[in-house]
Design brief:
2 copies of one chain form a homodimer.
Chain A lengths: L3 H6 L5 E5 L2 H9 L3 E5 L5 H15 L4 E5 L10 H10 L3 H13 L12 H10 L1 H12 L5 E4 L6 H10 L2 E6 L2 H10 L3 E5 L5 E2 L5 H12 L4 E4 L5 H9 L4 E4 L13 H9 L5 E4 L7 E4 L2 H7 L11 H18 L3 H6 L17 H22 L1
Parallel strand pairs in A: 1-2, 1-9, 2-3, 3-4, 4-5, 5-6, 6-8, 8-9
Antiparallel strand pairs in A: 7-11, 10-11
Helix pairs in contact in A: 2-3, 3-7, 5-14, 6-7, 6-14, 9-10, 11-16
């Protein structure tokens, strides 16, 4: 297939695979698509190791990274920032999470002392932390940097231009797209409300043509609700130059999501996700579980903003994940992860390369089928 | 174009146009699509007049009607049912709506006495009322009866079989589709969350292939987010045999929606709708306005169920519509109507026939464009 995306990135299949597992990223690229590593939770050292590993696997084929790069560049010690943020988490919220964990038999530990687990990630989105991650990324043979946190700073756009690295941005509404285009991005990803993770309210069917109309010559990928060749063909019909898939890889054999979460995904219906602020502070789609029921109960506190809610929740989630892994029943009731409405289509896990091949083949079949309708 | 829908209904374009304006219904059919009259708010006498008018316009071309037919057939006097329901509306809710209208300068009238305006509609969904409407519909040359209120009763399916009238059902999730198939419907409409009116939570991009997979040989139409040929091509790529469009006609010249509501639609963005229970008691997508802000304010009552909330709201909405028509500023702030997220694409109103022709032409262009990508 040939689209503006295959031309821009030099790939065979206009399909971007977004995932935090280096194995998935490498396999998407090796199968003819374009793998993008969700790198926000890596330290610079970890990122360096992972990108080196990916490059050994892909042998010159193109891939990219996804970071949270803030538009404003304040200066300061990340440790000070973390301490200052931590002090802003109300005692009521800490007590609520402690009580929630205890009710489900998960050891809350000494939550009041820390949330240490989330500190790395906060450092990663603090300006100095991001610069270190960007330095690592640009020292590798990347073809694309994606940023989901507002418009990229001019320094990133310039850096991308110089290095021949495309800068991509995820958008959920028209105004965001206009801001991203003003900032000079090379590629827009129109992400519909059905997507996993942070999403807006507008569905892919409506959002994609709206963003394509605004974007002019800038290529637009469709994201949200795309896990099959039929859905990829639909996205191309809407004017997208390709698709950005996230959730589908969570059911691949290379994905690092814990096996008991994957099993929950496999039995979930498309109606079993919820767009909730309880995990990061911003609306993000995830599998509905007892965790969300607890936060929605009358008397529960309102979720905090980002990054406070993320700091509050992330340490709790590490404890929940560990307890669920160890077989604790209550923890498994709470267990969840970011996933889109396509979770309802998950069956047995498949190798990533096979998923790419099947999506591409079905997409071509669907297009041929449409042609025969005329 | 040729699909299972064009074969089943004998139309040129696999596009169903759903609207309460007889003029829109007739024009969709005359333009080669299939018009369906939203007939729930008509009395039997009115319906008879409207269907006679439509038939004069379409001259033998096929069209259908949409009713709310309950699956259970209790017997009783509709007047008793209305009185019994009216008595169940809490005084708190009546006072809240009265206060709301007064704050926006709309005369609430004597709300405590009646909600008379809604009585016709309640009679229309009471079993005896529906039977009278069905008798009228089957005395005309209809080709399809659609039902949005759960599975059709066996009597309706049988009546449809005998008369050669297809029975269609709108579904928003897989379980509903299974129940409709068990009841023997001839056509399923998979309606995504982005649609106007009553909707579920799953987006068209995800719901359509899910329902197509379940439906086997039963044709499936996609609804929600479809107002252009690009979106129609996308729906066909997802496996739909055609599309069911509602919102797009609200911006046609034949549509009977008041002109000041249409103007609000034309300036609205795709993010300006809300899925709210405040108008009918069930989640229905509509244009967000001051009405919804008032119901969401802390201290406002929870919306009632259906049909109580519909009875409570409908009389208020007749007063709001009338006051807005007369130019009252406050009423125009409250003013709203059911519409999907495609409202963001509304520009100048076009004749219905031109909308059908443009959708069909763009759909074919998009399919040809996809073919060239291969």
């Amino acid at each position: 297939m040939r689209t503006a995306l295959t031309d821009m990135l030099g790939v065979d299949v206009p399909l971007v695979g977004f995932n935090r597992s280096p194995g998935v990223v490498a396999e998407v690229t090796r199968a003819g698509g374009f793998g993008v590593l969700a790198a926000t939770s890596y330290s610079p050292e970890e990122l360096d190791v992972q990108l080196t590993w990916i490059e050994e696997r892909v042998q010159g084929r193109p891939y990219g990274v996804d970071l949270l790069v803030p538009a404003t560049t304040t200066v300061g010690d990340p440790a000070d920032l973390v301490a200052s943020l931590r002090a802003q988490i109300p005692a009521e919220h800490i007590e609520f999470v402690r009580g929630l964990l205890e009710r489900y038999g998960v050891d809350p530990g000494d939550l009041s002392r820390g949330f240490g687990a989330a500190d790395d990630q906060v450092e990663g989105i603090a300006p100095t932390g991001v610069e270190a991650l960007l330095d690592v990324a640009f020292s590798h043979d990347i073809s694309l940097v994606a940023n989901a946190l507002g418009p990229p700073p001019p320094s990133l756009v310039e850096r991308g231009r110089k290095a021949g690295v495309a800068v991509a941005a995820l958008v959920g509404r028209a105004e965001h797209a206009l801001r991203q285009l003003d900032a000079g991005v090379d590629l827009l990803v129109a992400q519909g409300t059905e997507a996993g993770g942070h999403t807006g309210t507008v569905a892919t069917m409506v959002l994609t043509p709206e963003i394509v109309h605004i974007a002019g010559d800038t290529p637009v990928l469709a994201a949200g609700g795309i896990a099959s060749g039929a859905q990829m063909a639909a996205a191309l019909a809407l004017g997208a130059a390709g698709v950005w898939c996230g959730s589908v890889w969570l059911n691949s054999v290379e994905d690092i999501t814990p096996v008991h979460v994957k099993r929950k995904f496999q039995t979930a219906a498309s109606t079993d996700t919820v767009r909730s602020r309880t995990r990061t502070g911003k609306p993000a789609r995830q599998l509905r579980s007892a965790w969300h029921d607890e936060w929605e109960r009358p008397g529960s506190p309102e979720p905090l903003g980002m990054p406070l809610q993320m700091m509050l929740a992330k340490d709790a989630w590490q404890r929940i994940d560990a307890a669920a892994e160890a077989g604790a029943e209550g923890a498994r009731e709470l267990e969840s992860f970011f996933v889109g409405q396509v979770v309802g289509s998950f069956e047995e896990p498949r190798p990533t390369a096979r998923i790419v091949a099947e999506i591409a083949a079905e997409c071509e079949e669907r297009i041929a089928g449409l042609w025969r309708m005329l």
